Structure formats: structure tokens, C-alpha cells
Amino acid sequence: MFRDRALVAEGSRLRRITPLAAPVGWGAVAVAWRLWCPLARQPGLPMRIATSVVFFSVGLGLVLGLRHGLVRELARVRAVADATQQVLLRPPPARLDGLAVAAGQLSASRGAVVGGDLYEATATPYGVRIVIGDVRGHGLAALGAVVAVLGSFREAAHDEPELAGVLRRLERALGRHLCERAREEHPARAGRAPAHPAAEEFVTLLLLEIRSDGCVEVLDCGHPGPYRIGGRRVEPVSVGDPMPPLGAFPLPADLVPHRAARLLPGETLVLYTDGAEEARDDRGRFFPFAAVLAGAAREAPAALVHHVHRALLRHTGGRLADDVALLVVRNDRVRVPAQPAEPGLRRTRPAPSPH
Prior knowledge:
By secondary structure, this protein is of the alpha+beta class. It folds into two domains: 2-78; 87-331, 4-Layer Sandwich (Phosphatase 2c, domain 1), CATH 3.60.40.10. It has seven helices and eleven strands. The strands form two sheets. The protein has a six-stranded antiparallel β-sheet. A five-stranded antiparallel β-sheet has the order 3-4-5-6-9, with helices on one face. Helix 1 (2-36) runs antiparallel to helix 2 (45-88) and helix 3 (143-159) runs antiparallel to helix 4 (163-185). The protein starts with a helix and ends in a 24-residue tail after the last strand.
């Protein structure tokens, strides 16, 4: 195994230096010509010009070779990073149990596809379960908490029959991550768990369950509630009394999900992180999130996500101060009207008895 790794490393080094072979060879010829060729030692302007051209060509070749190698290396690094980020924050399926779903994120870190926001939607035997959250801070430094929460949700959403059980699993996963980070940052404490692993780190989080009849249950840990779009009407959805963000304080002993209004056929839920409502333009004006949603109320979920992203970038001039994540769910289930009974099957009231 170690020999294979050495061979891979050697091949990588060879690939990096290959673009420099031609300029270096040409430079060696130029130096040899200057030092040992009698013609190069002759005085006169033409010979000085020729020598300058030779060495300028060598320098230009070296610069172009280095640039070519760096561009290829950067392209490989970006390809690996994009693949890793897509696995971490993968796009949800376009349809889940009769619901149309779309999601997307804008990262405040330049060149990053994901940051400190997270989302996931999955169909389970208990209904479609959705999580959206925001790790304190933004950008690549928050990816560890994102990995911990999403990894736990993808397992717990299918294993736990109650929504409260899913949230407790997320809390335990985040707690383990924070303890591991604290040990790495303070190696002297590696022998015992730190009392306060990372007091300043927490995750605001919204956990939803949408059942087959459209009933919606919510557990809110300090996260903004979603908007409901019905026709051209946009209104906030009540999520009950919010709990503290996950990781800041222990969850209460009794976790009772809040029963929100039903998501009727044709209606849409828009889940988001607070970077959407807190984005400002160069004059300090907040992004009119609800008004933008109303202007795209009849769009499909994917088109709605793109519409909001474009409006956000126009409003901020492309300079986001925080990550922004959106997850849009539309109920495409068909409401079947009650059918009248067939004439031959109608129940008739029995004739009154003469007694």
C-alpha cells in the first residue's frame, strides 16, 4: 500500500514538472550558447539584441509553463471540491411522495458551493421529513457541524418514528462533533471530555414532517419559520414557541411538535435561512424577501429558487454577508372530490312498520 502511494506521489510530481521541461531545456541551450558560442561574444548591437531575444523567450516560456501547470492543478482541485460539496449538500429529488421539491444555496465564501447552511428532504414511512439549518458563522469553517447534523439526519429520519426522536439524534451528533473539536483545539484536555466543548458554536434548525394528508408538524430550534404561498398570497407559517438553537442548551425533557396548518394541494412552503431576510444593499436596506416571493408565487419550485437567488444577487451587488439557503416544497397531490353513490347502490329508507 505504501509503495502504491509513493508511486502515485511520484506520478503527481512528474505531471507537475512536465510543462516546465521544454522551457528549462530551451533555457539550458540559451545559457550554453551565451557562454561557449564564439558568435555570442562578438560585440555589436545586433548580437546584443539577439541575446536579449533569446533570454526573453526563455523567461516567457518559464512563466507560461508555470501558469499552465498551476491552471491544471487548480482545475483538478476545484473538480474534487465540487464533487465533495455536492455529496455533502446534494440536491434533493425533484419529487418526494407527491411533493415537488427544489433547493439551492448561495455561499458568502468566494468560490465555495456550500458554507454554513444545511438542508435535506427525504421520504420516510412516517412522511416527508425536512431539515434546514444555519451553523453559527459561515463558509468552509462551518462544514464540520454541517457534516455532523446532515449525516445524523439522513439516518435518524428513517429510523425514528417520532419527530422528537430525530431531533434528539441530531443533538447528540452535534454534541460529539463539538467535543471532538474541543479536544483537537486543546490537546492537553484529550484525556477527558471538556465541560463546555464549544460554547460559542450552535446551529439554528427547523425540522418538519409533512404527512400524506398534508398535515405539517414542526420542531423549531431558533430558526425562522417558513412562508406559505397559496395563489398569490404569501404568509408566514406559525411554528410555535421556538426552542434555543441546537448545541447552545440541552433540549427540554418533553418535545412536543407544533401542529401547523395543513399544506393543501397546490400550496407551497418556502424554507430559508436568515441570510435571505438580513441581506442588505449598499444603502443598508433589507432584502424584500416576502415581496420577491409574491412576485414569483406561480413559479415551479426550481424556478422560484433561481428567481430568489437572482433577486438577492441584484440587491446585494453580488456581495453576500452570510450564506443563504432555500428549500421549496409544493404539494402536487391531487385532491379527489367526493363522488356521489351510483343510483343502484343508493340506500333507501325502509318503509315504516304498520306496528
